Amino acid sequence: MLKPEFFNPVSDPGIAFQRDNISDSLASAVRIYTFESGFPDLLGAQIAIIGVNEYRGSAFNREFRKGTDAIREKLYRLKKHEGSAVVVDLGDLKPGNTVEDTYYALTEIVTALLRKAVIPLIIGGSQDIAVAQFNAYKNFEQIINLVGLDARFDLGLPEESLNSHTWLGKIVLQQPNYLFNFSNIGYQTYFVGAASVDLMNKLYFDAYRVGMVRSDITEIEPVIRSADMLTVDLSVIRQSDAPGSANPSPNGMAGEEACQAMMYAGLNDRLTAAGIFEYDLNADLNQQTAHLVAQMIWYFIEGFTNRKNDIPMLNHNGFITYTVTLDANGSELVFLKHKTTGRWWMEMPVQGKSNRFSRHNFLPCSYKDYQQACQNEMPDRYWQAFQKLS
What we know:
This protein is an alpha/beta fold. The chain folds into two domains: about 5-305, Ureohydrolase domain (Arginase, Chain A, 3-Layer(aba) Sandwich); about 320-390, no CATH class. The protein has twelve helices and 14 strands. Strands 1, 2, 3, 4, 5, 6, 7, 8, 9 and 10 form a ten-stranded mixed sheet that branches. The chain has a four-stranded antiparallel sheet with strand order 11-12-13-14. The longest helix has 18 residues, at about 290-305. The radius of gyration is 21 Å and the shape is globular.
């Protein structure tokens, strides 16, 4: 499915600056699909950037201009990384005759990239595209964790059709279901109804208000470290930092916090797909949002180049083990701390259960979770995961 005829090459506006021949620009380190260079060689590739200018599934009834060139023009002017990540840019996916055709093509493309152990990084388009990206995991019958940076939950109602405000609900309702956990980061209470909060709680999903994120962003690192797939709705970022969002708000995460989140995502050894959605070129001011998205991508690549491969295995080599017994019920919680990176994990009781849950044997956590257990309190993170496994 990874054939040139499914993509449009990156056009002149996205790479015009390359004529300057800047040797230390990111462009010099990325294999970019252009008319001159041809379709990039995927041999050894680790990250594949895909532009998707598909907005027919948007919940907003308005025209969107192609925005991927604006993002690329800013991205490839940035400096290349010190690490050795191999990045390719496949250009823009050609839109199908219908939006369903686009979904199908993208699912096949993401599936092909996952088989090659290449991370698809999608830019542009409305967030319903995340469903097509998620559906690729169904081809592997792999139960995954999904993390979304979003000001809303986007659950919608069962009778509503798929669009950028109902995409998560469509994933939750799929049968068979391959979603183990969903975590929302950055939601704003006045955009989220009580029924949606109640449903999130009943499903034992995680939700973190923007105020919590802004008070201590390090606490979202374990959340992002649990993700197999990350999706970012630019509405999670405040309008002053990202005016080119399809649905902007005066409040939200700051631009540097969004970049920090992308850094965490790149560092996550288990993350295999990501997407940044809802860019509206029409609403952007001096391409400020395009520049921010470019920096978010840069930080994702930076994180990837610094991956530590510190996911614990059953032998626990390289980790310090701490066992905490809770007085209330005698439960023993096992914490692992990596000797080099200092990152924390909790061991979950999935032994004897189906192999389909074996990937969730270790749950990322923080030092605060360990401290909470030492104070004889069950960490919320542990309890929610335990409910799914029991």
